Amino acid sequence: MSERILMCGNEALAEAAIIAGCDAYFGYPITPQNEITAYMSKRMPEEGRVFVQSESELAAINMVFGASATGKRTMTSSSSPGISLMQEGISYLAGAELPSVIVNVMRGGPGLGNIAPSQGDYFQATRGGGHGDYRTIALGPSTVQELVDCMPLAFDLADQYRIPVVVLADGILGQMMEPIVFNKKPRRSLPPKDWALTGAKGREQNIVRSLWLPEGSLEKHNYKLQAKYQQVQKNEVLCEQYEVDDAEIIVIAYGVAARIVRSAVKKARQEGIKAGWIRPITLWPFPTMQIAKAADELSIFLVVEMSMGQMVEDVKLAVAGKVPVVFYGRAGGGVPSVDQVLEKIKQLTIPVKKQ
Amino acid sequence: MQNTKQNSYEEIIVAGFGGQGIMLAGRLLAQTAMKAGKEVTYMPSYGAEVRGGTANCMVIIADEPIASPLVDKPDSLIVMNKASLNKFASRLKAGGLLVMNSSLIDTKPQLDDSIEIIAIPADEIAVELGNKKIANMVALGAYFQKRGILSPDTAAACLPDTIAKRYHKTLPVNTEAIHRGAEFTKDNE
User: Fold this and answer.
1) Could you tell me which CATH class the domain B9-187 is placed in?
2) Is residue A354 situated within a structural domain?
3) Same-domain check for residues A203 and A248
4) What is the Rg, in whole angstroms, of the alpha carbon atoms belonging to chain A?
5) What would the mean pLDDT of B45-73 be, rounded to a whole number?
6) Whether A316 contacts chain B with CB within 8 A
7) pLDDT band at A210 (very low <50, low <70, confident <90, very high)
8) A142 near B CB under 8 A
9) What is the per-residue pLDDT across A258-286, written as a single tens digit (0 to 9) for each?
10) Are residues A165 and A109 in the same domain?
11) How far is CA A78 from CA A10, A22, A171, A212, in A?
12) B62/A contact by beta carbon, under 8 A
């Protein structure tokens, strides 16, 4: 077994990306994710790979476009305002079906906001974020170890589906240190990148583009993208659940918020409240089926976010009105405490009488 | 020995001014806990701190996976200057432990009787050892000795993984500082 080492989330995900075979990193500094760029500036040249500190976020995402078009594994990282600047490029990546990994270490918004941890970019990450009908896969790890484990998955998903993959972390996850292990897991078998721009000598020309002007061609392209998204929704949902079967209340949270929920639910169980939790790991594709199934039992749902009510909409769509869905969240750097979540659970349930 | 704990869910805040090695102290705590087979989280304050400004970090040591890495009410507080004492002392849990650098804190704080206070002249001990920058290690040594969750020897063994390679010539003096802090606590019990 590999040894446990202590690393902050930002550096750990950067090393995990290198292990996953990231060929090129492009980025522009912004707190609270600067450790990624700093780490890559040192390690990528050591590995003989590409590191560029771009002149802006727009440049970074378009460098990702260029590198990805040549068939290389490529990534960028930023934090909320920087990711907003990248949206045009992400839409182009989605349109041109270019694999890419985009790490968003979320901070408080809207606007320049602050540098405190937040989950306020859920809508942006799960709805596409830029213009046009597209989706990006969005992963929401909740520990530094899971952040490490989701990087190879992100690159594999990107290559398999030719899709941008967003890794949604936050200021806490990026800055905090936890013991981690770099597991070398077997990769997925991936299709050859026969679409890549590698020089057309001896073969037909490949074209990478997001512009479809002939009448009907863009509509056809959109149907192709939608069919792909349906495959992703069908095959790639990841979520974790705990003591859901007999639960009177199911608490739903992702990322750092899910860590807090885990403790609150444990305390609630100790006090005789039948509580459980569901933690989406893929935020898109969302675990709609899993949540819908849980809603078939008579229970109440509580959604906890470090935002003002974004994922709660996906939960309500999944629940489809069958049971009540209640929301609790804090924003702008506010982090719900275990006691606050426990209090909310208590308000919504009647504890079992002690015998 | 009321503040010696064996089983652990221990929340610690380390605080001082920028340049006192607050983050390094926190990272050594975390590294030591990991080496001892514990679950651990380390969370730095990452605001626009500069040398001379305030700096603090939060460390949680436990036997089970840790929920939030943020610490509201610490079990233990290690403060290296007066501003940090004023900022964090009221957040200490009843029955908690305060380790304070009496070289830079001249007053005895008004705290709940259940809180145990170790006032250690960390800067003076550091200067005696010939390096005023290692006051952080002196204070940590006092903490390790009193709390008993982690041993000063394990901490010393973790120094090479915590201190940047270019400063490895300071490993012996850092090790000595941890032990001097521990001895100070032992002698004053």
Assistant:
1) alpha beta
2) no
3) no
4) 21
5) 85
6) no
7) very high
8) no
9) 999 999 999 999 999 999 999 999 999 99
10) yes
11) 11, 16, 11, 30
12) no
Answer yes or no: is A355 within a domain. no
C-alpha span between A342 and B124 (Å, rounded):
46
Query: Is B161 close to A176, i.e. CB distance below 8 A?
Result: no
Whichever domain contains A255, its CATH number is 3.40.50.920
User: What tokens does A221 get?
Assistant: 């392209």
Q: Are strands A239-242 and A282-284 parallel, antiparallel or unpaired?
A: unpaired
User: Which pLDDT value is given to residue A1?
Assistant: 47
| Residue spans per domain, chain B | 9-187
pLDDT at position B60 is 97
ipTM score assigned to the predicted complex? 0.92
Of A177, A212, A235, the domain-final residue: A235
Judgement on whether residues A204 and A246 belong to the same structural domain of the protein: no
Q: Are A46 and A178 within 8 A, CB to CB? A: no
Which of A31, A176, A242, A341 is best to mutate for the B interface (most B CBs within 10 A)? A176
The answer to whether residue A261 sits within a structural domain is yes
Q: Report how far apart, in Å, the C-alpha atoms of A192 and of each of A72, A182, A189, A224, B150 are.
A: 12, 26, 9, 19, 52
* Residues of chain A contacting residue B161, judged by C-beta atoms under 8 Å apart: 6
A336: nearest CA in chain B? Answer: B68
A36: domain CATH number is 3.40.50.970
Which residues of chain B lie closer than 8 angstroms to A262, CB-CB? 65, 67
Parent domain of A43: 5-235
Neighbouring CB atoms inside 10 A of A262's CB total 22
CA–chain centroid gap for A331, Å, is 18
Instruction: Indicate if A259 and A196 belong to the same structural domain.
Output: no
